[in-house]
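Deliverable D4.2, example record:
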Amino acid sequence: MGLFSRFGDIINSNINAMLDGAENPEKIARLIIQEMEDTLVEVRTAAARAMADKKEMEREITHYNRVRDDWSEKAELAIDKGREDLARGALVAKQKAESEIERRKEAMNAAEDAFEKRQEDLGKLQAKLDEAKAKHRALMMRREAAEQRIRVRSQVYDGKVDDALARYATVERKVDELEAYADTIQGREPTLEAEFAALERNESVEKELEALKAKRTKASKTKATKAED
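Output generated by the structure prediction step:
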């Protein structure tokens, strides 16, 4: 496919319709962008070549202008010297130079026209390239968002997640039972008031014990004294 045939297909194509109707829009977008970028390089190269041709024609026109002027002076000199034959030959050479100048001017005009058209083509193609890149970026963001939604929803609606949550419920029940058992144990532990009450009871018992011991000791002594009498 030629440069301008391919360029025309790109310019005339409806990129949005191409992408929306494609089986793999992202791949198509990349291909279109690559094709456009390659075409841009070719069009810029052709534009540079047209500009180079124009400059070359300008140099040749300048050269043939000097040649024409030189033969014109020679023809005048030949007339002054009475040499019409030489003057005639100089005029023929002058006309050849003028013909070359006209051909170069036509070529230069063609080069200028080609350069302007390529510049116009570049503008159109750049606009299409920007459109394709924007579409491609949008597709990339849509694809990424869709993939994330798939990952999230697959986890939310996955039976494994429900099973794991059910297992958590079982574990939570066991934790509740352990906490209840711990509360039961804590209920049988003596409180601060109970400990002080026990301490007072112990002190009372000790006093009573000491009194009982003293009483028994006194009784034993009394009994022993009576026995001696």
